[in-house]
Amino acid sequence: MKLMITIGITVFGFIGGWLGALLDHNPSGLGAWSLTLGTIGSFVGIWVGYKVGKNYLG
């Protein structure tokens, strides 16, 4: 389950940060939207990783 949560944090945090960088028009990824959506994406990744780990890995 720990591996699924780690993968979820990484993937969803990256996607959230990338979408935030697109909203900020800032390629460095250090804008307010990028940090906010990256954080939200990481929390979503924790939840998704937990659910996947619990449902499919027992």
Write the layout of secondary structure elements.
Layout: H1 2-24, H2 32-56
Helix pairs in contact: 1-2
Unreliable sequence segments: none
Helical proportion, percent range? over 70%
Rg from alpha-carbon coordinates: 13 Å
Task: Count all strands and give the number.
Answer: 0
Strand/helix succession: HH
Q: Residue-averaged pLDDT, rounded?
A: 91
Count every helix, treating DSSP H or I runs of 4 or more residues as helices: 2
**What percent strand?**
under 5%
Q: Let me know the largest β-sheet.
A: none
Q: Could you walk me through the main structural features you see in this protein, from its secondary elements to its overall organization?
A:
Helix 1 (about 1-25) runs antiparallel to helix 2 (about 30-55). This protein has about 60 residues and is an all-alpha fold. It has two helices and no strands. It is elongated. The protein has one domain. Helix content is about 85%, strand content about 0%. It has helices spanning about 1-25, 30-55.
For the structure shown, list the relevant keywords.
58 residues, mainly alpha
Summary?
The protein has helices spanning 2-24, 32-56.
